[in-house]
Amino acid sequence: MKIEKATFAGGCFWCMVKPFDSLPGIESIVSGYTGGDLKNPTYEQVCTNKTGHKEAVEIEFQPDIYPYEKLLEVFWSQIDPTDAGGQFFDRGSSYAPAIFYHSEEQREAAEQSKKELDQSGKFDKPVVTPILEAKPFYLAETYHQDYYKKNPAHYERYSVGSGRAAFIQKNWGDRT
After folding, report:
1. Catalytic site residue 47?
2. Would you state the pLDDT for residue 174?
């Protein structure tokens, strides 16, 4: 059984777990921090926007069951790809979206999917989400893991209150 990793930053990592969690071929999904140079950053450090890290999810998946290209489709449908300054009401570099690739094949697939989305006319502004080489990934604190399962009422209020749920509904239909 072949297992690969995919890493996506899409704003608050709480909202990036649920869309992938129940897909076929997903072995694991964890919340954490990547993209910066500080080793083992904490949530408080990342929130300062001074470490270079982004909140992200790291997914272990079986590409023969659920290909990387399909993960990219899910990713795009969970973010505002035209906003480089954060996502929804979460602002700053730690909440900015990005795709972190783990192979040349992933980089090429991500670039192609970004190009197709940009040319689709779905958005009035250009797709600006960067595609970056994967860097070390550090697990977030335990209370951030599986947040939507542990705190479903707060998660739902956050998803709605942040503007994420309405954006997804407007642009993608029912994909929350």
Report:
1. no
2. 66
pLDDT at 17: 97
Token pair recorded at residue 164: 């994420």
- State pLDDT tens for residues 72-84: 999 999 999 999 9
Contacts of residue 32, defined as CB under 8 A and 6 or more positions apart, other chains included, come to 13, 55, 56, 57, 58, 137, 138, 139, 140
**Annotated catalytic residue: which of 6, 12, 96, 127?**
12
Distance, CA of 14 to CA of 39 (rounded, Å): 22
CA distance 92 to 46: 10
Q: How many CB atoms lie within 10 A of CB 145?
A: 17
Bridge partner list, 6: 59
> What is 4-172's CATH topology?
Peptide Methionine Sulfoxide Reductase; Chain A (3.30.1060)
* Residue 173 confidence (pLDDT): 85
Spans of the chain below 70 pLDDT: 174-176
Helix (H) or strand (E) holding 15: helix 14-21
CA–CA separation, 4 and 154 (whole Å): 31
The pLDDT value recorded for residue 176 is 46
* CA 9 – CA 12 distance, rounded (Å): 8
